[in-house]
Amino acid sequence: MEFTKSLILIVSISSLLLSINAVPTTSYTALTPAASEPGRLIGIRVIPEVILFCKDTENPILCAETIVPYFQGEFNPIVALHSEFEATLNQSLKVANIIAQLQVPKEAIDALDICKKQYEYIVDTIKEADELLNISNVVDAYYKFASVLAYRSACEDAFVESNGVLNPFAEDSLIVYQLGGNCLAILDGIINSNYRF
Ligand SMILES: *[C@@H]1O[C@H](CO)[C@@H](O)[C@H](O)[C@H]1NC(C)=O
Ligand SMILES: *[C@@H]1O[C@H](CO)[C@@H](O)[C@H](O)[C@H]1NC(C)=O
Q: Which of 64, 74, 80, 99 is the most buried (most CB within 10 A)?
């Protein structure tokens, strides 16, 4: 189901990418898969700016999905980036909440403690990155997001060393990695002047 939706989105985004050269960047393009398809972006307008904004990230579909619902009117890359930060923060808070309620076998207690700490760091660091973005310090915001990914890896590694106990929140943690990676890629794009500020 999720896969089918993603596929619809990939096809839609690909055709939007193809049409970018053909349409003025101010025009709106409706993403409306067949009415019977429960695509996640049905009813939401995706403007070419969002496609351009997300296209260099590792997960452009996730990027578009997390950004599109959160802006009205004219596209603003900084507002879009704030949304991607917030999506990463929300997902990290979700993982932190899972960790707080989790019971694990004793082999994994140390790993869980490490993860608890790492996700505290992650939440604080994303908030710091958001403050930096607010004062247009994109370079330091970039380094903050690099640390977010490092903290997240430290948690994953702790489970690798927990005598065969698998990470019970691996799927949710993977989404933190994908969203955080998107933020990093977008910041990198801004630093390398692909976007005007
Ligand atoms: C993050 O969570 C808050 C509170 O639940 C919600 O209002 C907001 O829309 C979410 N933001 C994103 C980008 O998902
Ligand atoms: C950054 O600015 C936005 C928009 O003005 C605001 O909503 C947000 O709370 C600010 N974030 C921080 C961490 O100060």
A: 64
The overall average pLDDT reported for the chain is 80
Q: What is the token pair recorded at 78? A: 């900084």
Backbone angles phi, psi at 6, to 5 degrees: -60, -40
User: DSSP string spanning 18-78?
Assistant: HHHTTS-TTS-EE----TTS--TTTT-EE-HHHHHHHTTSS-HHHHHHHHGGG--SS--HH
Closest ligand to residue 84's CA: 1
Q: Does domain 77-191 have CATH number 1.20.140.40?
A: yes
Q: Which of 143, 117, 149 is nearest to 129 (CA)?
A: 143
Residue ranges in 76-169 assigned as alpha helix (H) = 77-101, 109-134, 138-160
pLDDT at 132: 96
What the block records as the tokens of 172 is: 């949710």
Q: Do 36 and 68 contact (CB within 8 A), yes or no?
A: no
Task: Give the residue, out of 50, 65, 67, 90, with the most ligand 1 atoms within 8 A of its beta carbon, to mutate for a pocket test.
Answer: 90
pTM recorded for the entire structure: 0.77
pLDDT in tens, 99-137: 999 999 999 999 999 999 999 999 999 999 999 999 999
Instruction: Write down the domain spans for the chain.
Output: 77-191
